[in-house]
Amino acid sequence: MKFALTMNKVQKRYGKVFALDGLSLSVPTGAICAFVGPNGAGKTTTMAVLSGFIQPDVGEVDLLGLGPFDPERHQGRVGVLPQDAELPLASSPRQLLRAWGALQGLSRADAAAATDRVLRDVLLFDRADIPIRALSHGMRRRVTVASALLGDPELILLDEPTSGLDPVQAQHLRDVLGALRGRKTVLISSHNLLELETLCDHVVFVDHGRCVRAGPMTAITGADREVRIQLCPPFPEGRPEWVQLRLERDDPRSLEGATTALLQELIAEGALIREVRRGESLERKYLSETASP
Asked: What's the distance, CA 68 to chain centroid?
């Protein structure tokens, strides 16, 4: 397996406080990866280290097999959305993005085309020439998201990309990011675990500056081997409200086939089915894996 991003035993300390305390993680190439942790877990510091805004005290960082972030080596290959991104208020989104495209090494024509594309991606093409000072908070956030998607980055680092977006805008952005699966590598930090569960195929849990658990989303949530079935009362004799099916790794049956057989058995017993869910929710798995309240 190839990895677009790796961190090995990375530490970053502020005084006596470790923001990162030996953090190690890997993100497979082409994955859309959820980066999950409580406030103070080190997520924003990790994003800053990855994007070169701050330097780690100890440890190794590698982006795209080219080592830690370097403006020359990674020019145009890494897109970044910081948590708190300030914008020049006198510029318009079109002016700003074209200038950033030029800094990435794009020609004037390519920067103009790339700018128009990302403005459409974030539903701001009709506001492209309005000064940023006249845009709402959500619109400004979409400008910063557009900056991370500008050009043709291989690796995209997004810190709370849907923060401040309304439901329609957030869903559209999820569709845009989902279309990148397999073509780009995307790391998304967010507290919206339902959104991450829907969008991402890989997940990293962090707490107290360390990686708690990481792996494919289906393996973490159990969606690759577990099904939970909720019954409606009255329950068949001896049956609880929730019936769980779990296949071991060496079980030759498919999860779909085993689930169908179990449902047929329950229905034959007179059970009424309220819900069928593969695995646990990402939120429940996260709460069970982290020590933070």
From this structure: 21
Delimit the domains of the chain by residue range: 3-217, 226-289
Structure tokens at 261: 């057989």
DSSP output for 229-286 = EEEESSPPTT--SEEEEE--TT--S-HHHHHHHHHHHHHHTT-EEEEEEES--HHHHH
Task: Evaluate if residue 290 carries a pLDDT over 80.
Answer: no
CB distance 204 to 196 below 8 Å = no
Identity of the amino acid at 95: Q
Q: What is the pLDDT of residue 164?
A: 83
Q: What was the pLDDT predicted at 291? A: 54
| pLDDT average, residue stretch 227-237 | 92
Give yes or no for a contact between 140 and 82, defined as CB atoms under 8 angstroms apart: no
Q: What is the pLDDT of residue 288?
A: 84
Please, what's the largest Cα pairwise distance for the chain? 73
Per DSSP (E only), the strands in 16-134 are: 17-28, 32-36, 58-63, 78-81
State both tokens at 116: 């128009």
Strands 226-232, 242-246: pairing kind: antiparallel
CA nearest to 263, candidates 250, 249, 251, 277 = 277
C-alpha radius of gyration, the chain, whole number? 22
Pairing of strands 78-81, 155-159: parallel
Other CB atoms within a 10 A radius of the CB of residue 69 amount to 22
Q: Give the confidence band of 289 by pLDDT, cuts at 50, 70, 90.
A: confident
Q: What is the pTM of this model?
A: 0.90
- The C-alpha atoms of residue 198 and residue 187 are separated, in whole angstroms, by 14
Please check the confidence at residue 292 and state whether its pLDDT lies above 70.
no
Tokens of 191: 């507290």
* CATH architecture of structural domain 3-217: 3-Layer(aba) Sandwich (3.40)
